[in-house]
């Protein structure tokens, strides 16, 4: 076999999570020729395991990270505009069980204590929300905070523990499809920079004499010669650096686990709101509606192996008991769990610090080029989902300076994917839906559903779908032609790409054998799979669901 031709690049980004995708899009927007690669699917690692929140980091006020809160609230507000199809306001309540507790503990934490405060009282919460409003004023998108007395709170949440004295109310935001947002960033980058590429299921195998060898999903080999490498591999950063000839100890990650509950009574109580509450150990937890289920999270446990991380039985026990304590008027048990997931946060190595107090701020140490490795390597450490754009801009500015290239376009106001041209008022939305329905022959109600899923990309999906479609078994709101469009246009390699990341079918607990087989058949037709490949994909999916997500399906 002949060696592959070496391709010259300006920048190679390793890791297609949210930070890598953000940097890739930013650099492509500046006219650079870039490549982003990931050993899995786009957004399939840590970026697939967040709490699905786009938030300002209220709890970071306790550790005095005011700059991070200011940045986070601003970035949250930008995402509500730039990705309005995927990022939406989330009304939130904080149950409070005392008036004055926690003030001195919070002050100790603020001044460097390594133990987290517990039992945050009304005065502390009120002060925190007021500061949060102050920082959220820049590009403000949502109302300010409020407070409800015990009687009002229990009238709205009858199942809530009667131990409360008040609740705080404020707004943050949720991302309805984080993996899709990651993929749309990579697609935007490719569209803005002819010659740039975004490759999923493509692993780095090593470097030699300034070139990096890659292995694609079919075993095909490629060799690239980048002028600069950005290591955005999250909790895999140190492993990737080893492949590049670097010995680093940058990551000291912690595991965050979540569960999804099928619980209609809980959803009725929540009524579209998130409850942001303290566990018995002082850990901040949350529960809110997500694709027809209740999402509960998260834990914060030191962990090292991102390829084997799962939500354990001990963690699910902790979640269930915490919900029982919070909402004694409702019943909770393990049979209500329809999906679970876990990921490792790529936090900085911070030995001796309590997991909940490790900074969520970011850094990007640079290893200069050497005679043995003719390109610099910048490693992206830490950060959080909400602040990816700001982190990406900071990294991109440093890369551009190293390469002697000027910044041509800021990204603050740059829409993402289907957020481009998104109708933001009820009138504009109605006009858009009516126009697409008239152009494509698809019913207006169906166009509205597609708009909520894909933003303005819904026009292309509707045109592909047409009038005569068939709903999937056990998921009639997702059509056969919709899945066909995804398979043909969204870099699908495996069945799990569609069911876990391009759609919400897995996380919403709707997977059945009939549905999975139908999607495998449609994807196989679009991608040229034979029957043996379809069966392999179904078997791999069953193993993944069982081992990583607590879902057991017989797909033989």
Overview of the molecule:
Helix 14 (480-489) crosses helix 16. The chain starts with 5 loop residues before the first strand and ends in a 7-residue tail after the last helix. Strands 3, 4, 5, 6, 11, 12, 13, 14, 15 and 16 form a ten-stranded mixed β-sheet that branches. Strands 1, 2, 7, 8, 9, 10, 18 and 19 form an eight-stranded mixed β-sheet that branches. 37% of the residues lie in helices and 21% in strands. Mean pLDDT is 90; it is low at 102-114 and 352-357. With 556 residues, it is an alpha+beta fold.
* Structural class estimated from helices and strands: alpha+beta
> In what range is the share of β-strand residues?
15-25%
Biggest β-sheet description:
10 strands, mixed
What's the average pLDDT?
A: 90
| Shape category | globular
Report the uncertain regions.
102-114, 352-357
N-to-C CA distance: 37 Å
List the helices and strands and how they pair.
Blueprint: E1 6-14, H1 18-29, E2 34-37, E3 53-54, H2 66-82, E4 87-96, H3 103-110, H4 122-135, E5 146-149, H5 150-156, E6 166-175, H6 178-192, E7 197-199, E8 203-208, E9 211-215, E10 221-231, H7 237-243, E11 254-261, H8 264-270, E12 274-278, E13 284-290, E14 293-297, E15 301-302, H9 313-326, E16 337-345, E17 362-363, E18 366-367, E19 377-379, E20 381-382, H10 388-403, H11 426-440, H12 444-454, H13 458-465, E21 471-472, E22 475-479, H14 480-489, H15 495-502, H16 513-527, H17 531-549
Parallel strand pairs: 1-2, 1-10, 2-7, 4-12, 10-19
Antiparallel strand pairs: 3-6, 4-6, 5-6, 8-9, 9-10, 11-14, 11-15, 11-16, 12-13, 13-14, 17-20, 18-19, 21-22
């Amino acid at each position: 076999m002949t060696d592959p031709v070496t391709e010259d690049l300006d920048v190679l980004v390793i890791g297609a999570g949210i930070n890598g995708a953000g940097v890739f899009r930013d650099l492509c927007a500046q006219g650079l020729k870039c490549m982003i690669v990931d050993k899995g699917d786009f957004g399939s690692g840590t970026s697939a395991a967040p709490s699905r929140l786009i938030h300002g980091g209220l709890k970071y006020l306790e550790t005095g990270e005011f700059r991070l809160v200011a940045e986070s609230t601003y970035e949250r507000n930008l995402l509500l505009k730039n990705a309005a199809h995927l990022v939406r306001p989330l009304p939130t309540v904080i149950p409070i069980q005392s008036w004055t507790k926690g003030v001195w503990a919070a002050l100790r934490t603020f001044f460097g204590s390594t133990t987290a405060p517990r039992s945050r009282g009304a005065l502390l919460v009120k002060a925190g929300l007021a500061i949060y409003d102050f920082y959220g004023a820049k590009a403000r998108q949502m109302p300010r905070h409020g407070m409800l007395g015990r009687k009002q709170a229990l009238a709205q949440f009858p199942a809530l523990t009667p131990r409360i004295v008040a609740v705080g109310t404020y707004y943050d935001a949720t991302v309805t499809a984080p993996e899709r947002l990651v993929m749309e960033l990579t697609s935007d980058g490719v569209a803005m920079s002819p010659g740039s590429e975004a490759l999923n299921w493509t692993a780095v195998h090593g470097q030699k004499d300034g070139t990096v060898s890659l292995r694609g999903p079919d075993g095909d080999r490629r060799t690239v010669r980048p002028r600069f490498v950005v290591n955005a591999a999250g909790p895999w950063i140190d492993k990737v650096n080893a492949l590049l000839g670097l010995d680093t100890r940058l990551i000291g990650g912690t595991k965050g686990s979540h569960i999804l509950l099928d619980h209609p009574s809980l959803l009725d109580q929540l009524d579209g709101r998130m409850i942001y509450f303290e566990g018995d150990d002082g850990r901040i937890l949350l529960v809110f509606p997500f694709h027809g289920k209740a999402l509960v999270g998260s834990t914060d446990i030191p962990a090292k192996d991102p390829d084997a991380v799962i939500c354990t039985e001990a963690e699910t026990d902790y979640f269930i008991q915490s919900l029982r304590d919070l909402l004694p008027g409702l019943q909770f048990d393990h049979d209500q769990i329809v999906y679970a997931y876990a990921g490792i946060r790529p936090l900085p190595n911070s030995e001796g610090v309590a997991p909940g107090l490790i900074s969520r701020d970011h850094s990007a140490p640079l290893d200069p080029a050497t005679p043995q490795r003719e390109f610099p390597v910048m490693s992206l450490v830490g950060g959080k989902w909400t602040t990816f754009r700001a982190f990406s801009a900071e990294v991109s500015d440093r890369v551009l300076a190293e390469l002697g290239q000027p910044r041509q376009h800021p990204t603050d106001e740059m829409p993402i994917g289907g957020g481009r041209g998104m109708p933001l008022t009820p009138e504009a939305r109605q006009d858009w839906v009516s126009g697409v329905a008239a152009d494509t022959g698809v019913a207006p109600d169906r166009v509205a559903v597609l708009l909520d899923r894909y933003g303005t990309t819904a026009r292309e999906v509707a045109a592909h779908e047409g009038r005569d479609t068939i709903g999937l078994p056990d998921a009639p709101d997702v059509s056969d032609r919709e899945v066909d469009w995804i398979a043909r246009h969204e870099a699908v390699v495996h069945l799990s790409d569609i069911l876990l990341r391009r759609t919400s079918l897995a996380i919403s607990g709707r997977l059945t054998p009939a549905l999975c087989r139908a999607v495998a058949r449609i994807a196989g037709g679009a991608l040229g799979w034979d029957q043996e490949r379809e069966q392999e994909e179904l078997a791999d999916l069953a193993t993944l669901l069982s081992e990583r997500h607590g879902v057991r399906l017989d797909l033989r």
